[in-house]
Amino acid sequence: MPGPDLLSSQGLRLDGRRPNELRRIRCKLGVFTQPDGSAYLEQGNTKVLAAVYGPHQVRRFRKSSAEGVVVNCQYSMATFSTGERKNRPRGDRKSQEMSMHLRQALTAAIKTEMYPRSQIDIYVEVLQADGGAYCASVNASTLALIDAGIPLKAYVCSCSASMAWLDGVPEPLLDVGHVEEAAGGVTLTVASLPSTGSIALLELSHRLHSDYFDTVLSRAMQGCRDIEVILDKAVRDHLAEGWTKQDVITI
């Protein structure tokens, strides 16, 4: 059954984007000096900071920590991140769920076997939430891990997709924003390693007919591949900037 009206008669979305268009992504590595790695990322109006500490000696020894690194993730939202002030920006059920999902996606990319009896701490703070906070958090955390020099199997990127109808014809939407989420349509969130084609996390907000699932998933996976290109360019630009500064100091 057709969902909420998310496309205009011209085929444009509520924020003016085309169905297959990402929100604008801006990102920067090394925004803090105290952590081992850090990154700031904007995906549309959603703004996220990520910081990485470690690897360091595991605080509480567990049998699993002897086999590989323990990945600890903490997701939180600033009290001013949304229009409604949050009384508990961290530690609530939603934050705990997001922390668990972050850990699942990032652990899939980290070469955990290289750091036995060690721990990596990843802290994510959402400064402004305008839809796709989890996706932006995964993407920012990937950059922070790279900035910290943590070996990864591949980039782990996250993107969402939804479904809309134009003149009765289904049209998948890429990178769902807050207005589209609030409209009540289905949102499929994917975290994947685009270079390998593997999926680290997949979550549906509502029921989606099986006839449309593959189409929406394909659109989300394409978004992950597009985001990987953007993140990779940011990393290369950051490295090039570092080499340029080193050359200046040497001269």
Automatic annotation (TrEMBL):
Keyword set includes Hydrolase: yes
SUPFAM superfamilies the UniProt entry points to: Ribonuclease PH domain 2-like, Ribosomal protein S5 domain 2-like
Domain Exoribonuclease phosphorolytic: 21-151
Gene Ontology CC: cytoplasmic exosome (RNase complex); nuclear exosome (RNase complex); nucleolus
Keywords: Cytoplasm, Exonuclease, Exosome, Hydrolase, Nuclease
GO biological process: nuclear mRNA surveillance; poly(A)-dependent snoRNA 3'-end processing; rRNA catabolic process; U4 snRNA 3'-end processing
Cell compartment(s), UniProt: Cytoplasm; Nucleus, Nucleolus
MF terms in GO: exonuclease activity; RNA binding
Key word Cytoplasm present: yes
Primary localization class, coarse: cytoplasm
InterPro entries xref list: ExoRNase_PH_dom1, ExoRNase_PH_dom2_sf, PNPase/RNase_PH_dom_sf, Ribosomal_Su5_D2-typ_SF, RNase_PH
Function comment: Non-catalytic component of the RNA exosome complex which has 3'->5' exoribonuclease activity and participates in a multitude of cellular RNA processing and degradation events.
Subunit structure: Component of the RNA exosome complex.
Family from the record: Belongs to the RNase PH family.
Protein name, per record: Putative exosome complex component RRP41
Species of origin: Danaus plexippus plexippus
